[in-house]
């Protein structure tokens, strides 16, 4: 038995890749249900370190990905390969399930809002623009189930200035996204996607 243990230890030192691939096989990124999947369109990529593009998937608990998403990772890279180089865009990230999906009285909780993003930057995954709401990590409350974190990308008119009211600036929750879109004539998103996650301790 000791000999077998020694052989396994030796193998782990000599072949770390083999053990890593074994571990990675147990970490599965599930795609969303058909109803949630319908929200995703336009090839918008949401890229976090270690996991890559999480568009239209559940964040798994394995490898502490949910904890890292809530406590460590900063804003993701947002890539939209079909962006028109000389056009401007608005990026919105919201949680429509605050405080939970059954009773979303605080929808659409605003997690990130950036305007004046050049299409040339979007095509390579850079978000440079006017930040109206700093990126807030997804932090679902315990026992609140899965939350959808939605990313919506809108085309912005060339000489348009977009802003938040003082009331909107003071509160991230119960944001009227529909009114915001209508006020600035943003129309329908040119691309949208979402991922689902829940509290890492659940």
TrEMBL record:
PROSITE patterns: PBP. It comes from the Eukaryota. Signal peptide: none annotated. Gene3D superfamilies: PEBP-like. Belongs to the phosphatidylethanolamine-binding protein family. This is Phosphatidylethanolamine binding protein 4. The gene is PEBP4.
């Amino acid at each position: 038995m000791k000999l077998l243990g020694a052989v396994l230890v030796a193998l782990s030192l000599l072949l770390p890749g083999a053990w890593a691939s074994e571990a990675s096989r147990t970490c599965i990124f599930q795609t969303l249900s058909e109803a949630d999947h319908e929200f995703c369109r336009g090839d918008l990529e949401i890229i976090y370190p270690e996991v890559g593009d999480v568009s239209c998937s559940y964040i798994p608990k394995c490898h502490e990905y949910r904890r890292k998403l809530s406590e460590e990772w900063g804003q993701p890279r947002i890539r939209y390969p079909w962006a028109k180089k000389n056009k401007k865009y608005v990026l919105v990230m919201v949680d429509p399930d605050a405080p939970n999906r059954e009773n979303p009285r605080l929808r659409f909780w605003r997690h990130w809002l950036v305007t004046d993003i050049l299409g040339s930057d979007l095509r390579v995954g850079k978000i440079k623009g006017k930040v109206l709401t700093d990126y807030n990590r997804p932090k679902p409350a315990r026992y609140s189930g899965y939350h959808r974190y939605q990313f919506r990308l809108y085309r912005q008119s060339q000489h348009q200035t977009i802003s938040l009211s003082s009331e909107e600036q003071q509160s991230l929750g119960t944001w009227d996204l529909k009114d915001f879109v209508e006020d600035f004539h943003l129309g329908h998103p040119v691309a949208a996607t979402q991922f689902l996650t829940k509290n890492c301790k659940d």
